[in-house]
Amino acid sequence: MGCILAALVILKHVKQLQPLLDSWAIQRTRQALPGDDGEGTKATLQSYIDDTATFLHPQDIIPFLQHFQLLGKPLGLHLNFAKTKILTTTTGISVRQMPPTPHTLALIQALDYIEARDSSLFPDPEITSGIRYLGQPIGSPNFAHTFLLKAAASYATAVAKLMTDLSDKHTASLLFRSCAQPSLQHLLVSDVYYNFDPTAPTPPLHEWTSPFMDRITTATNAFLAYLGDSPHLPSHSHAIAIHPLKQGGLGFRDHSIAALPAVVISLTRSLRYATHGIPLSSGTVILPKPLARPLASWNKPHTTIPLFLLFNCLAPSVVSLHDVLRPKHTPLQTVASLVSHGNLHSLASSIYLHHCTAHITTCATTSSPSVAKCFPSILSPLTSLPLATYYRRHPHNRLSTAVFTVLYQRKLRLPILPPTVAQHPCRHCHRTLDPYGDHLFVCRYSKKLFSNNICDTLYHLCRHLAPPAGSHKHLTM
Q1: Distance (Å, rounded) from C-alpha 354 to C-alpha 338?
Q2: What are 282-291's contacts with CB under 8 Å, separation 24+?
């Protein structure tokens, strides 16, 4: 409806419609037609900002639209039939081509009702593949795969624009970490749901792969390499880049590590709410049976529901990590215990940190000696904060592209000097240079220069903090 206040108005409107919709469902139960929810297919209306979706029994569609127009007019609500669509099936086959049944005939009548009131050039209100609902693809696997690949392509395009349209790498890196990467977080569940194969060997929790994930990873790695003026990122550089900031990394997100735990933990929380209710400060709220019933059969043996097959395959790994990462908590040992009383608070973050730590530990032990010896100093959070968290409103917190690139290269242990320069000896001490710039910290000439600069800086700082104490040569630190 184009207005952010529409959802509030619709809530008032729904209160007027709800008793009527409930009466239609009661009539069906009296006719021995329990529907898919056991209560006569009760109508469900949901609004998010200015988007409204309604789940109706086919026979309720036309009466609902009629009453919506009639009762909505005093509130200023106008139903735009050009934007009113009906998801009739997810097979790609129109209901007009299906055998006549009470359901298909009711749907055809509803489609004709909307078409007769739609004056647009594209009047077909029927959708037969899938829809986007709250940002998620709902429909056939082909529809979902196409949807996810389009989202991955949009992400790759946005990342490419950061590399081509912004000359300030510091700004580009912050926009990438704070805007581009979080834009795909909500699609990880859909990607796992539509691509997980319960008949194949269960993948490790930190190694999710899919066509969607592969495209995201490619775009992410290209951007991280661009920041360091490198054709590609070595494994140790990638490990440092995705390591959390508080542990000395740069905090870039690796969705392939986060995807599977995020799916299992969010589904665990939903199963808990459906089984035990939602705990609030005022008490526990029990969900209505139509909402709780679909999730109540998750632990039944021989289930064929893909969502529960996925959960039962992946949940044991989460249980094992829960017991390792929550040593003070009573060991769970079973998936049912995870659902009933597992400590889910920050569990996804803890699992992500666990996998990142294991990855960076492996890199530290398998890297070359020139790289491995630097890991303790590289993983200092003090060298991470200037690159990722400083408030850039103040000009002194902004790093020029040249300075940012050098700091980024030092942080990820990437070559700073080109090969043509690194192979020459130092002109001051005549020792061999190195591509990482380590020589600058051991060269006698540079060391003396740096020492003088540090001493002078400390002297000027102390001179402003205390009365003059003479020459800096007599200053004791």
Answers
A1: 19
A2: 289/37, 289/38, 289/39, 290/37, 290/38, 290/39, 290/42
CB 52 within 8 A of CB 46: yes
**In which element (H, E) is residue 44 found?**
strand 44-48
As a whole-number percent, the residues of the chain with pLDDT over 70 amount to 88
DSSP 139-172: E-HHHHHHHHHHHHHHHHHHHHHHHHH---HHHH
pLDDT at 475 (0 to 100): 39
Which pLDDT does position 227 carry in this prediction?
Answer: 95
Q: List, in sequence order, every beta strand (DSSP E) within 218-271.
A: none
Structure tokens at 384: 């991470």
Give tens-digit pLDDT for 89-141.
Answer: 999 899 999 999 988 999 999 999 988 887 666 668 899 999 988 889 999 99
- Produce one character per residue of 79-104: b if its CB has 16 or more CB atoms within 10 Å, e if not: bebeebebbbbbeeebbeebeeeeeb
Tokens of 451: 């020492």
Mean pLDDT in the chain? 85
Q: Is 465 exposed, middle or buried (0-12, 13-18, 19+ CB in 10 A)?
A: exposed
Task: Let me know: does 128 contact 88? Beta carbons within 8 Å.
Answer: yes
Q: Which of 122-126, 266-270, 321-325 has the lowest mean pLDDT?
A: 122-126
Neighbour-count burial for 266-287, b at 16+ CB within 10 Å, e otherwise? ebbebbbbbbeeeeeeeeeeeb
Residue with tokens 């900031």: 245
**CB 387, CB 411: distance < 8 Å:** yes
Q: How many CB atoms lie within 10 A of CB 66?
A: 12
Q: What pLDDT, on a 0 to 100 scale, did the predictor assign at position 1?
A: 44
Helix (H) or strand (E) holding 17: helix 6-30
DSSP H or E stretch at residue 67: helix 61-72
Distance CA 62, CA 41 (A): 16
pLDDT of 477 over the 50 cut: no
pLDDT band at 455 (very low <50, low <70, confident <90, very high): low
Find out whether 216 and 254 touch, Cβ atoms under 8 Å: no
pLDDT classification of 471: cutoffs 50, 70, 90: very low
Q: Look at residue 131 and give its three-state secondary structure.
A: strand
One-letter identity of residue 160: A
